[in-house]
Amino acid sequence: MARNSFHWTMAAILLGGGVNIGAAAKAHHAAHPAHPRSDRIAFDRVGQVCVMSPRDGRVTHITTDAPVYGDPTSPSWSPDGSKIAFRRYDPSVSRFQIFLIHADGTGKVRLTDGKDLCADPRFSPDGKTILFSAYHDAIGHYRIYSLNVSSGRAKRLSHGPGEDGSPTWSPSGSRYAYIHFDPAQGRSQIFIASADGSGAHPAFPAMARHNFDAPAWSPDGRKIAFTWKRNGRSRIYVLRLHRKSRLREWIHTQYDDFSPAWSPDGRQIAFCRVAVNTKSQIYVANANGAHPRQISDGSTTDSTPAWRPHL
């Protein structure tokens, strides 16, 4: 349900009791609602890559061939906005693979070699590399890989026990954050590593049994928004890096919120919401959580939003 769903058994973990990490942040009442300054948001619509205007909700289908499965495509824009990387099932290899397509819907090519189950593509800030997660049969776990867009060569970045996925680049491209699941502890944690995979460490101390997903690094490099699944509900939290009191609930709501995506200027966050008896829809709110509003039309399931960079 979240941006990547992490594609592992960890998605079914039941979370333990509540963890008191600070008071939930109530939505602040700003003077004006969010008015997105980036003019396009890519998203998934039942296995298709689509692009939407956040101002008027107009939708353009980028992929038009019928998907074999309707799993989220997790689109990611190239820095110049000309291409979109995404995940889709390839029947020729019977596996999910990473593809690249021009923003006008032409020139679709497969980037990965067909040997692994692939997910979570994310373009680097310079556009030369795509991070993704992949399950290799010989390894038996999901790991983070970097893919050279020009050569197509992939390099494994994460190692050790457990599962790794949902990568997100820092704005400088010198680091990335990702989700690490420890099966022995029955919990997932946000880790940060250098671009070459070295120096991996938790973003904050482990607290209790929990399930994190879909981290998104803010454009100013100071925050990471992510999904926290606890007590049967999904909420979006914001981690302020390098601060003593640094973790807060973004919007306190009775709904399920997940898959945060920062706008290029950092003033808004697009996200998914499942209200009572409804399908997942795309919303936009101010970065402080104020004035959430639905921008998708509610006709079907929409998920995994990604803002187009400023051009």
Describe this structure in words.
The chain has 311 residues and is an all-beta fold. The chain has one domain (9-17, 39-307): Neuraminidase (6 Propeller). It is 0% helix and 44% strand. The chain is built from no helices and 24 strands. The protein has strands at residues 41-45, 48-52, 59-61, 76-77, 83-90, 95-102, 109-110, 117-123, 129-136, 141-148, 154-156, 163-169, 175-182, 187-194, 201-202, 211-217, 223-230, 233-240, 247-249, 256-262, 268-274, 281-286, 293-294, 302-307. The strands form six sheets. The chain has a four-stranded antiparallel beta sheet, with no helix packed on it. It has a four-stranded antiparallel beta sheet with strand order 4-5-6-7, with no helix packed on it. Strands 8-9-10-11 form a four-stranded antiparallel beta sheet, with no helix packed on it. A hairpin with a 5-residue loop joins strand 12 and strand 13. The two termini are 30 Å apart. Residues 1-33 have low confidence and may be disordered.
Highlighted features:
single chain; 311 residues; mainly beta; Neuraminidase; four-stranded antiparallel sheet; globular; disordered N terminus
